[in-house]
Amino acid sequence: MADAPRNDRYLRAIYETRDPGKVRDLYDRWAESYDTELIDENGYAQPGRCAEMLARHLPDRSAAILDIGCGTGLGAAALAEAGYTLVDGCDFSPGMLARSRGTGLYRRLFEADLNTPPLDAASGAYGAAVAVGVFSFGHVLPDSLDEILRVLSPGAPLVIGLNRHFYEEGSLTAKLAALAEEGRIVRLTEEHGEHIRGTGVTGWVIAVRKAAEQN
Fold first, then answer.
1. H or E element that contains 160
2. Cα gap 173→81, rounded to integer Å
3. CATH topology for 11-210?
4. Hey, is 62 helix, strand or coil?
5. Scanning 31, 82, 104, 125, which has the fewest C-beta atoms within 10 Å of its C-beta?
6. What is the DSSP string of 69-119?
7. Spans of all domains in the chain
8. How many C-beta atoms surround the C-beta of residue 102 within 10 A?
9. 188: helix, coil or strand?
10. Angle 46-47-53 (CA atoms, 0-180°, nearest 5)?
């Protein structure tokens, strides 16, 4: 396939798998070597890019943040480096959650399938959310944005990092456009740049804000 990873123990399989059940199994098996393959071997840029984007739109470093699809905790590590101190995480892979738990970076971790809501979180519980590499083929579907918005407080930012293939597929950007048209979100920033350097695939970071008048 185009833009195939050079070091592809699991990256190639994740790129090619579309069945959610198989995706979950792959992530469970990948958990132990995930950080090595993504960070050390392939230069995964999106966690840092998403944390930097959030810092532009959320000056309050004590705000409660939900790390959606937290994986092994790379997002929380980037958020901690940016100065954020209160992060919860959710993921659909028990193997990934076990790795996240070992980092000590999260206040709370819980299992969640965004495609089958609800999330185990109260409405308006979070002052921000990040979703790094979550929206993709066979992963989280764009309609899950409705549930993500439910757990955000009015005016809270949401930062999404995704690869260019899924961005260009268009279903996520169409959902964001519909939410903006309905007055449920305010679109803030979209930036193209690095995604996973070793794969040759670039990506986008998108920032939106939940409309202030929502509950």
1. strand 157-163
2. 29
3. Rossmann fold (3.40.50)
4. coil
5. 104
6. T-TTTHHHHHHHHTT---EEEEES-HHHHHHHHTTT--SEEEE--TTSPPP
7. 11-210
8. 10
9. strand
10. 85
The HSE-up count of residue 92 (CA atoms within 13 Å, CB side) is: 19
Quote the CA–CA distance of 32 and 145 in Å, as a whole number: 29
Cβ–Cβ under 8 Å, residues 210 and 154: yes
Tokens of 71: 């994986």
- Asked if residues 85 and 49 have their Cβ atoms less than 8 Å apart, the reply is no
Q: For residues 149 and 129, what is the distance between their CA atoms, to the nearest angstrom?
A: 9
> In this structure, are residues 121 and 148 in contact, taking their beta carbons and an 8 Å threshold?
no
Sequential pLDDT tens for the chain (215 residues): 333 334 456 666 666 666 676 777 777 888 888 888 888 898 999 999 999 999 999 999 999 999 999 999 999 999 999 999 999 999 999 999 999 999 999 999 999 999 999 999 999 999 999 999 999 887 899 999 999 999 999 999 999 999 999 999 999 999 999 999 999 999 999 999 999 998 889 999 999 999 997 54
Distance CA 201, CA 72 (A): 21
* Tokens encoding 103: 């980092």
